Amino acid sequence: MIRRQGGGAWRVDDNDPRGETNVEIHLPDGAVVWPVQRVMKRFSNGSEDSIAGYGAVLGR
To answer: What angle do CA 51, 32, 42 make, to 5 degrees?
Structure first.
């Protein structure tokens, strides 16, 4: 949703052994976000790392 709404592009370093976790979205305004890492934080830390809140802030 972040990529689709923000018009960004997925990027991954094929040489990174944790590439699936460190995949980035590069947005047209130059911002870089790591949504997979955010989801992992949500599972680890609970609601304090809200995924909806993350998306809402990026949408501003």
So the answer is: 20
Q: Per this entry, what is the length of the chain?
A: 60
Place of tokens 């460190």: 22
pTM of the model: 0.73
Distance CA 42, CA 48 (A): 7
Residue range 10-20, pLDDT digits in tens: 999 999 999 88
Q: What is the CA radius of gyration of the chain?
A: 12
C-alpha to C-alpha distances, 13 to 16, 30, 41, 60, nearest whole angstrom = 5, 18, 21, 28
Bridge partners, 17 (sequence order): none
Domain ranges of the chain: 2-58
